[in-house]
Amino acid sequence: MKIESLDKLFVDELKDIYSAESQLIRALPKMAKAATSPMLREAFESHLEETKIQKERLDQIGEQLGQRLTGKKCVAMEGLIEEGKEILEADGLPSLIDAALIAAAQRVEHYEISAYGTARALAQHLGHADAVKLLDTTIHEEGAADHKLTKIAESDVYPGVRTEQEEAENAPKSSNGRAKKGAKKRASKK
User: Fold this and answer.
1) Which end of the chain, N or C, is more open, meaning fewer C-beta atoms within 10 Å of its C-beta?
2) The model's pTM
3) Which residues sit opposite 173 in a β-bridge?
């Protein structure tokens, strides 16, 4: 890749973010399905809708610049989503899986906040006032999503971990010393 100007760098940043949002749109439904906390599931579902709107904003910016934002793959988001897939395949107490999903989602949010912040700074410097407004809106939404995940973790998921661990410890054991099948699921439904 040859970086020839701030204008080209700005478009390249937007393409990277566009790819990131496209990947996230495919990943969020899987995260929502895996979440056992109703609050967390709702947060993922609502952020999916928000992400679709954010991608539409990027399309608007691309139109203003006369640029298509497709054609680049965001390798960073690909890696973050791959880490999330590992969590989806993990075995553990449901509340611990939820805690891990929150950690993965917050890494994604922080990446997006950083990427949008960089794009916003470039837009500001290059005099793209409309793009600055659209990017500011998205930065605010990403920060709010991160804050919401923290609240869900602290008020719902983390307290549930202790309860599930205690219930799993007190569950009837099989001959190999493990909790009998279904004990984990029963603990998560309380």
Assistant:
1) N
2) 0.86
3) 179
Digit-coded pLDDT (tens) for 127-178 = 999 999 999 999 999 999 999 999 999 999 999 988 888 888 887 866 555 4
Coil, strand or helix: which one is 179?
strand
Query: Residue ranges per domain, the chain?
Result: 6-156
Q: Which residues contact 129 (CB under 8 A, 6 or more apart)?
A: none
∠ CA(119), CA(42), CA(113), 5° rounding? 15
Helix (H, G, I), strand (E, B) or coil at 173: strand
CB atoms < 10 A from the CB of 73, how many? 13
**Run of H or E including 118:** helix 94-126
Instruction: Give the architecture (CATH level 2) of 6-156.
Output: Up-down Bundle (1.20)
